[in-house]
Amino acid sequence: MRRAGAVRLAVLGLLLACTPANAAGDRALGEYLSAECTSCHQSSGRQVGGIPAIIGHPAEQFVALMNAYRGRQRDNQVMQAIAAKLSSEEIAALAAYYESLKPNP
Predict the structure, then answer these.
(1) What 8-state DSSP symbol labels residue 37?
(2) Which long-range contacts (CB under 8 A, 24 or more apart) does 40-43 make?
């Protein structure tokens, strides 16, 4: 498990090194980080089984929601744990990525 974490950090470091100094809102980084999100949230953009759609979600609202989970102001232990391990830069990148996508009809 430690090796997987080290590999993730190395890839993340490479992505950050190759992005502009203002990487907040970097869609490519958001796309990379989104792999964990799609284990629960539908890539179609549909809400399923009480898990909300995040495809096409406005970036400002996405950031506010993730910060609320990070601050434990919203109840959901899974989302609280996920948000707690993300940096503000990573949340902004995810927000930019998901805002750029359009739901499938």
Answers:
(1) G
(2) 40/78
C-alpha distance from residue 80 to each of 11, 71, 104 (Å): 24, 8, 28
Residue 49, Cα to own-chain centre: how many angstroms?
20
d(CA 5, CA 22): 25
**What is the 8-class DSSP label of residue 48?**
B
Q: Give me the residues paired with residue 51 across strands.
A: 48
- Nearest Cα neighbor of 97 from 35, 17, 8 is 35
pLDDT at 27: 94
Q: Report yes or no: 34 and 90 within 8 Å, Cβ to Cβ.
A: no
Gap between the Cα atoms of 51 and 56, Å rounded: 15
Query: Considering the entire predicted model, what is its pTM?
Result: 0.73
